[in-house]
Amino acid sequence: MKFLPLAWKNFGRRKVRTTFTALSIVVAFLLFGILSAIRVAFRAGVDVTGADRLMVSHKVSIIQPLPISYRDQIAQVPGVREVTHANWFGGIYKDPKNFFPRMAVDPATYLDIYPEIKLPEGAKRAWLADRTGAIVGRVTADRFGFKVGDRIPILATIYTKRDGGRIWEFTVDGIYDAAKGFDTSALLFQYDFLKEATFASDRVGWYIIRIADPRRAQQVVDQIDKMFANSHAETKTSTEKAFAEGFAKQAGDIGAIITGIVSAVFFTLLLVAGNTMAQSVRERTSELAVLKTLGYADGLVMGLVLLESCLLALVAGGMGLGLAWLIDSRGDPTGGYLPVFYLPARDLVLGIALAAALGLATGAIPAWQAMRLRIVDALRRV
Amino acid sequence: MGLWRWFSQVGAVTMLNLRTLGQRRGSSAATVFGVAGVVMVFVAVLSIAEGFRATLAATGAPGAVIVLRGGSDAEMMSGIARDSTRIIADGPGVRRTAQGEAASSELYVVVSLPKRTTATDANVPLRGVQPAAFEVRKNIRLVAGRPFRWGRNEVIAGVGAARQFVGLEVGSTLHLGENVWTVVGLFESGGSVSESEIWTDVDLLMPAYRRTMFQSVHLDLDSPAAFDRFKDALTTDPRLDVKVVREPDYYAEQSQSLTQLITRLGYGITVLMAIGAVFGAVLTMYSAVASRTREIATLRALGFGSGPVQISVLAEALVLALAGGVIGGLLAYLIFDGYRTSTLNWQSFSQVAFAFRVTPRLLLTAIVVTLPMGLLGGLFPAIRAGTLPVATALRET
After folding, report:
1. What's the pLDDT tens digit per position in A101-159?
2. A15 to chain B, minimum CA–CA distance in Å?
3. Residue at which a domain ends, from A226, A250, A274
4. Chain A residues with CB-CB distance to B349 below 8 A
5. What's the domain range around A196?
6. Domain check: are A148 and A273 in the same one?
7. Which positions in chain A touch B397 (Cβ < 8 Å)?
8. What confidence tens digit (pLDDT) does each residue in A69-79 have?
9. Domain boundary among A225, A250, A275
10. Phi, psi at A201, each rounded to 5°
């Protein structure tokens, strides 16, 4: 620790260069942090899917509905613990730009199967008892300032009411939170309300199943699909992970291309900053020789150089990551298109490791080159 | 100092700087590539948005109109009963041909087909049409096989869809529930969104998807000017509850959200990177000035003013940035222009195949962006070069 002031003094030798090197590193890691969040966003929650959940949708395409009668049939399949279902409601809140998912679900079973949804007990009771009630996720509630008790009018795009009306009003009974990574942008309301108010009453969009043993998922999948084979509505059952992955992949290589490009830039920035850092060590070869003349051991001199370069890389990199974390924790920057947007802890750790690697590499290589020189030669170099 | 002398000094020192660039190859190259990287990313990301927008913008002729159920904002969610489609086709201003009105009642659904790049299922749009569909969209052109026959389980596929998804070659079959359909032809439509679709006879598609209603009517008016009258007639008709949109407007709106998403991400990333590259440029220019301390001091001692020396440093930074901009733009053009991919269009919940487009306007914007980067990067080093104390600088090693 007594060498810290020495390292600090060295930063001051060329203040401008040190400042700009540090700033480049800050920007590089800021970019890295934001990139991580974008990557997570494009994966759309694949990482938080439940291993014990299966999705059953129509085989031809997800837009085809399935009969409600399948619910009881699926529940009979051995290995199935619980079944619930959901309908995509679509609709418009004031303006098509205000997009957030709205779904009609069976409240009790849906909340059972998705324990990720954290809803206060009182709100849950209120919702179960309120036919026109709805719960709204935190992200959307914050975005539009929804509070418990508000009435949200939604203009239907798919479901016209029996009386020809197209405005559906839902009372907010609760606002739910969830663990990081779980999408909290959806509005959920009672399937019974949908059923009563429309003609298209006996169809659901997809089923979600909880199974007893994730290791036997494939057997359950096969059994369900076999059960409905050759019916007028054949099914395609998949694990929730496969389903979510398939969905994320629908967005195509756009996410991959953006991440690819930005990673390239990240490493370029590191290369430029690293080169400058290495250069500042090379410039001081004769100084290192002086230190050695004074009796500093090779290892100690090396340690000094590394201390300096690692300090710069870690402090600047840490600042960049911190800034990225601040920006990411403000959530989706695009206004609703990327509802899951955060900096995962894993990437934070990776970022710090990269910063440390940067410090080690930029310090070690020139320092090692300097060490190999004989003191006399090093001192003679200009 | 006379103005003329001042300018000739600027010219002389600038030329000297530029001619000696070769001696500072390493650090200059770092700046050039830093800027080139920024420009490449900028152009590449925005070319995605540009290509997507262009594909949807290529869809919809000026007189073409799409009629949906009132309140719905996409075909997939719409529904129009058969009786209503008759009333719509009889509306004022609908172009008439030898075969009747140029109005096609259509069904728009999706079928899951594996994407070539990921091998996972994606929502490929499947459109059921009536014969007039080819009157409304005049740019449909078969490039392989033959047209599908009405009343048969046959489809034709857009070339975009065939490129992106497995199983759409001429002669292959599609399984839609109990029905098997044969792909008999491939079509082009001038790069429009129709190229992402599969087309078939709507009267066969409806029972296959257990639908009793159409979803939209695509029609062609005598002239684009007839739109308002046609729209008023339909929306005031008590028998109908419809929304009437010009096709170009409909597709422009569909492209909005993805274009916006990519543009925002693109600009955000670019600004950050530009900041990074400016820092890189500052570092490079500082070291350029530092390595030439004696040279600059010699010039000053010979009687060159500090102004010309400063301007020459700025000019050098600008030239480096510009070179980076041009290289980055060219690289982006070579690598990304025409790159084909497909993505999920959230508004229609189906896949759109499109190609990245590096447009001249985009390239120009990118190169213009490099100028402030060069200026900012050169500013502080230039000030430094101009204020070097001549006597001590001459003595430096």
Report:
1. 999 999 999 999 999 999 999 999 999 999 999 999 998 999 999 999 999 999 988 88
2. 12
3. A250
4. 63
5. 47-250
6. no
7. 382
8. 999 999 999 99
9. A250
10. -95, -25
Span B380-394, average pLDDT: 83
The minimum CA-CA distance between A17 and chain B, rounded to whole Å, is: 6
> B100 to chain A nearest CA, in Å?
31
Number of domains in chain A: 2
Q: A244 and A128, same structural domain?
A: yes
CA of A57 to nearest chain B CA: how many angstroms apart?
11
The residue-averaged pLDDT of B169-180 equals 87
Nearest to B279 among A24, A250, A338 (CB): A24
Do both A314 and A258 map to the same domain? Answer: yes
**Cβ pairs A/B, distance under 8 A:** 162
* B46, B120, B283, B339: best to mutate for the A interface, most A CBs within 10 A: B283
Same domain? A39 vs A52: no
One-letter identity of residue B380: F
Same domain? For A221 and A259 the reply is: no
Contacts of B110 in chain A (CB under 8 A): 61-63
Q: What is the pLDDT of residues B119-151, one digit of tens each?
A: 888 889 999 999 999 999 988 999 999 999 999
Does residue A206 share a domain with residue A61?
A: yes
A249, B122: Cβ pair inside 8 Å? yes
pTM of structure? 0.80
Interchain proximity B122–A250, CB inside 8 Å: yes
